[in-house]
Amino acid sequence: MLCSREILNFLIRKDVKKILKRKDSDAGQRGKALEDLRASIFNKFRSSESAKRQQQRICGPIAALTFNFMVAVGIIFMNKWVLKNVGFQFPVFLTFIHYAVSWALMAILNSFALLPASPPSKSTPLSLFTLGVVMSLSTGLANVSLKYNSVGFYQMAKIAVTPSIVLAEFIWYKKKVTFSKVVALTVVSIGVAIATVTDLQFSLFGACVAVAWIIPSAVNKILWSNMQQQENWTALSLMWKTTPITLLFLVSMIPFLDPPGVLAFHWSFNNTSAILVSAFLGFLLQWSGALALGATSAISHVVLGQFKTCVILLGSFYLFGSNPGTTSIIGAFIAIGGMSFFTYLNLRDKKQQPQPGLQVSSALPKSKLSEGNGDICDGFGTETV
């Protein structure tokens, strides 16, 4: 519907009607004008800039964060089912299956020309390679940490990701965080620490994995957010480019972090179906996470993850009668209060910042028809969003 409406609006524009209705142009000029028109339409709806604008219109910050939150909660329960009830005790190989299914789904979209176009080569092969590597380390080590540590210790380790992101963004991009946001993030971290302090079970190996996971997780979020916001990548196009690299490095991690015996696993219909459902949710999680990082920031995405933990804790207490303890419940409410304050600060900053127009101009040569009408424009003129 959106594309049809935009094509109709484009066709009724003044400059386009001049091209189509010009009576005194010869056949050669008319043919060139139609060729320019067709190339312009293709540019508008298949270029990376257009795909990026469509993603921003359809999936804004609130929609992206909500989508990511719902999928993240769903995959937690599904992965728990796969690891416990199905008995698939191979976290890195499970991550490999997730990315393999994601790549297969994107290959299907690409075969039908439904995958958004990649932007012009602003990103170096090294940056795409780095993103693929840190993706494999971030997701693979996270699942290994969940296997050997309790959820509480995993969340405590996640607290360290926030200052890591702040420090890395300051070093790389000279980004500064206001004092008010520092206070809000500190309140969030204290609240999560209080909420999870009663569940700090870990092994030495699990603790080492959790510490090793912090830096790749922070770098992963920063790169995803920066490459989408600064270089016109869409979530799906960036996933398409980096997933093969991630799969390659996950294969190299399996012998070192997974226990032996994956080939001896009982691949029944029910077990395989549960793993494939988990993999499909993994694709949605990766996509929704990329959308959220492209629409907001790395820090906002981490805060969303902490919010998810608190909601699950309070939801289990209210719906299922679990008793995490008064201390944990108080900590969850403190964290939610800090998250609400942080969200308010972000919304206030967005309202205060001027919205610069995105200048998009076609590189097509001017047709003689346009010159003859005295118009100085390209296929679309200049469009601001």
SSE blueprint:
Blueprint: H1 2-11, H2 14-21, H3 27-46, H4 48-58, H5 61-85, H6 91-111, H7 125-148, H8 151-159, H9 161-173, H10 179-196, H11 204-231, H12 235-257, H13 269-295, H14 298-319, H15 326-352, H16 368-372
Helix pairs in contact: 3-4, 5-13, 5-14, 6-7, 6-12, 6-13, 7-11, 7-12, 8-10, 8-11, 9-11, 9-14, 10-14, 10-15, 11-13, 14-15
The helix content, as a percent range, equals over 70%
Strand residues, percent: under 5%
Distance separating the two termini:
19 Å
Mean pLDDT: 75
Look at the helices and sheets and give the structural class.
mainly alpha
Subunit organisation of the chains: single chain
Subcellular location: Membrane
GO cellular component, one term: membrane
Main location: membrane
Keywords: Membrane, Transmembrane, Transmembrane helix
How would you describe this structure in keywords?
single chain, 385 residues, mainly alpha, 16 helices, globular
Molecular structure report:
This protein has 385 residues and is mostly helical. The C terminus is likely disordered. It has one domain. The protein is built from 16 helices and no strands. Pfam families: TPT. InterPro entries: EmrE-like, Sugar_P_trans_dom, TPT_transporter.
